[in-house]
Amino acid sequence: xxxxxxxxxxxxxxxxxxxxxxxxxxxxxxxxxxxxxxxxxxxxxxxxxxxxxxxxxxxxxxxxxxxxxxxxxxxxxxxxxxxxxxxxxxxxxxxxxxxxxxxxxxxxxxxxxxxxxxxxxxxxxxxxxxxxxxxxxxxxxxxxxxxxxxxxxxxxxxxxxxxxxxxxxxxxxxxxxxxxxxxxxxxxxxxxxxxxxxxxxxxxxxxxxxxxxxxxxxxxxxxxxxxxxxxxxxxxxxxxxxxxxxxxxxxxxxxxxxxxxxxxxxxxxxxxxxxxxxxxxxxxxxxxxxxxxxxxxxxxxxxxxxxxxxxxxxxxxxxxxxxxxxxxxxxxxxxxxxxxxxxxxxxxxxxxxxxxxxxxxxxxxxxx
Length: 368
Ligand SMILES: NC(=O)c1ccc[n+]([C@@H]2O[C@H](COP(=O)([O-])OP(=O)(O)OC[C@H]3O[C@@H](n4cnc5c(N)ncnc54)[C@H](OP(=O)(O)O)[C@@H]3O)[C@@H](O)[C@H]2O)c1
What we know:
The chain has helices at residues 26-58, 101-111, 125-135, 155-169, 193-197, 200-211, 225-232, 254-262, 275-283, 286-295, 299-309, 321-328, 335-347; strands spanning 77-79, 85-87, 91-92, 115-117, 143-148, 176-179, 218-221, 242-246, 266-270, 313-314.
């Protein structure tokens, strides 16, 4: 019998470096390929579920956990020239009445607020102080702002009214003390024209309060650009760290925001929801409602987020527990939606702002 012809060996497969690799049985090769496909699919599933998990944590109110492009997070704090970090959202307590302001402060601290915006003239500092002290939150973990009322601008009156605020708040220092209005007027007397026009003596006394450790930062409120320039033309030891002014959808303050950025002055927005008289109208603005619907946020959260995204502190007031909680949950609006609200806020007709000049019988306009 003729022996079977020997089949020639196939040449071994050659790799890129020209070295020969031993050949493998066909079934083992198939198994490897199948294993690789399964591994890749498993990896992709793990990656996708990871992304969904992260988006759920980072974007809790995103409709359906949808991931928006270019989302950046909002600042939780701003750093002042002193190096102190001021929380970007505060609970405002103007018009927060007796037996309700303390509860609002308690709710706020539980909800995560660490910034209370008050004033001597709000006449509720004692109740705010009691709530702060019984909360168990450490003093150094809460930012407390108070304001110097118009009747006490004369240097000799400042320390005693500050001490009164400190005693009522139950603390030995304020994080921030502001000149409440650019009007120096002792009770029952005509306003002091010289001190109103140039509050340098008032400011020097405030600087002394910083040196004494009773106040950590000083600033102003309701100052327009002219008044800011007048004050800072003096040889100040400490420049104003903050200017607290009305800023809302109705009073967007574009010029002042630009000036403040150029001059490293932090703004704080009061009446950010339009105050009691206009909050309903603000929350019904079509753009606000549309954005809220799109992002699964409430209209108030959209407005408060928009404020922080514009680069300043925002001070919404509420004594309603659910609203206090609601208002602290802010997050960045996607750029296109932010622009949509910014355009709407800066292109409507001008609205009147809070201006007590007439009510206080002044012969000048505070904002001139
Ligand atoms: N420096 C100054 O001269 C000056 C002047 C004005 C104000 N401020 C400061 O700024 C803070 C805020 O200003 P503001 O009180 O005039 O106005 P705001 O915060 O714009 O509006 C407060 C009003 O909005 C309501 N509200 C709050 N959250 C809401 C929500 N999520 N949904 C629906 N309604 C809501 C409040 O009702 P409820 O309380 O009933 O919930 C209240 O009627 C003041 O408390 C004060 O600290 C400073």
